[in-house]
Amino acid sequence: MQFELTKEYLSEIREAAGAKDETRLIGLFNEVHAADIAEIVNQLSTEEAKAVLNSLDPDRASDTITHLDEEDRKDLLDSYSSVEIAENFVENLETDDAADLIQELSEERREEVISEIDDIDQASQIVDLLNYEEGTAGAIMGKEMVRVYDHISVTESILELRKQAEDIENVYTVYVTDEKDRLKGRLALKKMLVAPATSKIEDVYVSDIHWVKASDSTEEVASIMEKYDLVALPVVDNLNRLIGRITIDDVVDVIKEEADRDYQMASGISEDVESTDSVWVLTRARLPWLVLGLIGGIFGARVIGVYEADIQLYPEMAFFIPLVAAMGGNVGVQSSAIVVQGLANNTMGIAGILPRLLKEFSVALLNGLACAVLVLVYNLVFGDSLNLAYTVSMALLAVIVIAALFGTLIPLTLDRYKIDPALATGPFITTVNDILGLFIYFMIGRLMYGI
Fold it and tell me: 3-state SS of 370-416?
C-alpha cells in the first residue's frame, strides 16, 4: 500500500518531536519505511528532524538519512558533530552509501568523520571509494560482497559463506576468485547444494559472468545491468582482481540522475540544479540558453528584415511566419529526441549515420506531405491567393524535411565526437530551425511570386 502523509499525522509528529517524546515517536514510526520517514523529515525543522532520527534505531536512522533530499541532508549533517555523524550514521551504512554521505561534506569534515570511524577496515574501504572519479563504476560500487576461492571444497565454501554473510545485509551473488583475488566467475547456490560435498568450487562455478572495470563509466554500468537484467555487477581493477560490486539500487539512482540531467539540458538548463537552489545558481543555469535563444531571435528578425520589401508587396506572407518557424522547431526537437533516446538506450545499432538519415528522411517526407496537404486545403478554402497557398505548403514540406534531417544529424555527430547529444535538443535545435525555416519560406515565396 502506498504511504500517504496527512496533515494530521505530520502535525502529531511535529508535536512529539517538539516535546522530544521518543516513546511517542517510536510508536508513530513503528511500521513506516525509511524512505517514507525521509519524506516526513524533509518537511520538519532541523531540531524536529534530529528528534525523529534519535528515536529510530541506528540502522533505520542511517537508512533514512540516505533518502533525504540533498539540501535537507546537508543542513541536517551540519547540525551534527563529526563524532555523531561517524557513530550514528556512517558506521551503520554500507561502504558505498557511507562514501556518498561523506562525499557531501567539506574536505575538512570528511577527514574528521573518517578519523572517528572505529572500524579501521570500513574507514579504509570508504577512503578507497572516495578516491575514484565521480561518474565511474568505482565511485558507486560497494565493498560488501561474498566471495570464495576456486580451490576449496563445497563444504568449506558453505562454512565460508555463513561466516561472510553475517556482516552483509543483502547477499546478491557469490563470486569466485583465485588466490590472487582475480575474478573467475560466480557460484550458483543450487548447483553448490546438489554437488558432492568433496567437489571443488572450480568444478561447479559458472565462468560466464559480466563485469566492469572501476574506471568504466556509470552509463556503461547501467547499460550492462539493464541489458542483462542483473541485480548485481562485479567490479575489477586493471589486473582483473575483484574489488567491489554494484547493486541495482545504485544503478537506479544513476539512471534517474542521467534522465534528470538530459531533461534539464533539453529544456535549456546548462547545469544540474534543484528547485531548492539559490536564485543566482538557477539564473546561471538558465541564462546561457536564453541568451542563445535571444541571439537566434535576433537572427530570425534579421532574416525577416532582409525580406521586408517582399512582405510589403505581399503582406499575406506574414500571416504564416509563426507557423513555419514553429513547425521547423517542433520537428527538429522530435527527431533529435528520438535519436538522443536511442543513443542513451544503445538501440541505434551500428549501421552508421546514413541509414538513420534515410529513415528519418522517409518519415519526415510523409509527415511533411500530410501537413502540406492540410495547410493547402485550408488556404484553398479560406484564402484567396493560390500563390500563397502553394508557397506555404511547399515551404512547410521543405522545412519539415530539413529540420528532421538536421535534428537527426546533430546529435549523431555530437555523439561521435564524445559530446553529450542531449545538447542538440531543446533551445539549440529550435532556434536554428526557426532561422532556417524563415529563410526557406521567403526563398520559396520569392520563386512563387516571381520577385
Answer: HHHHHHHHHHHHHCCCHHHHHHHHHHHHHHHHHHHHHHHHHHHHHHH
